[in-house]
Amino acid sequence: MPMLYRLDAPALAVGRAFNARVGDDPWAGGHVAPGQFAPVITAGREFIAGPRPAGRVLETRMIPRLWGVPPPPSVPDGRPVLTVRNLESPFWIGNLRNSEFRCLIPATALMEWGKPSPADGKRRQCWFSCADQPLFAMAAVWKDSEIPGFALLACPANAALRAEGRETMPVILPPDAAARDLWLHGGWDRAQALVQPYSSSLMDLRRAPED
Fold first, then answer.
1. Domains of the chain and CATH, by start
2. The dihedral of CA 112, 117, 120, 126: what is its sign?
3. Which of 101, 140, 144, 166 could join 157 via S-S bond, C-beta 3.0 to 4.6 A?
């Protein structure tokens, strides 16, 4: 899974692309690493108590959230959880089944460390982007504690990432509003079908140059 991604678009452009209210989000573009705040697209249910109103869809909005959520008490090292790998985990299942806790993470590229170079044995950054959507959405869920955080959903790596030695990748949603709406508002019985690898043929790879 990536430990770095880029969102090379300002807040207003991201809001327009995802039909989300931006508010005062100051994002101007750049990279995001674990433990940093990043723009997150939500269904607008944060801080609202009670069940979702029947037949009513709240305004989609973009807010800053921290990449990483506090782990369950059983985890001894206390490191923030960055990804959701087990869809049946008791720690995540409530967030996944209740659509108001699902969110979208806009991105323009994600970074994975490639295989060691045969020349010097060093791993180099491999930046993956989507050829069919310059600005794409990764599926995620949010949790609130002292700090509002999010975690990316993981799925098996596609052929392009497996070629670089990766076993998993983030869930990248198809480039259509229906898929994004399904993740934000749909029942889990249908939304979980989106948890699958993105097609290798639709991804571009740019490797960092050798020293």
1. 4-43+59-207 (3.90.1680.10)
2. negative
3. 166
| Amino acid at position 154, single letter | A
- Retrieve residue 6's tokens: 């880029």
In angstroms and rounded to an integer, the radius of gyration of the C-alpha atoms of the chain is 17
The CA-atom distances, in angstroms, between 22 and each of 40, 44, 64 are 10, 12, 10
pLDDT band at residue 50 using 50, 70 and 90 as cut-offs: very low
CB distance 126 to 205 below 8 Å: yes
pLDDT band, residue 54 (cuts 50/70/90)? low
Q: Quick one: which of 6, 123, 2, 149 has its CA closest to 71?
A: 149
pTM for the whole structure: 0.92
Taking CA 19 as the corner, what is the angle to CA 17 and CA 20, rounded to the nearest 5 degrees?
A: 110
Strand order from edge to edge, sheet including 30-32 = 30-32, 4-7, 109-113, 125-130, 203-207
